[in-house]
Specification:
Blueprint (H helix, E strand, L loop, with lengths): L6 H16 L1
């Protein structure tokens, strides 16, 4: 995963990656 600058950004990135992988 990419570097996490902020916890919120990390969560958003995680959700985006999960959605992309699920698609």
């Amino acid at each position: 995963m990419t570097q996490c600058f902020v916890s919120s950004a990390c969560i958003l990135y995680g959700f985006a990656e999960l959605f992309l992988f699920n698609l």
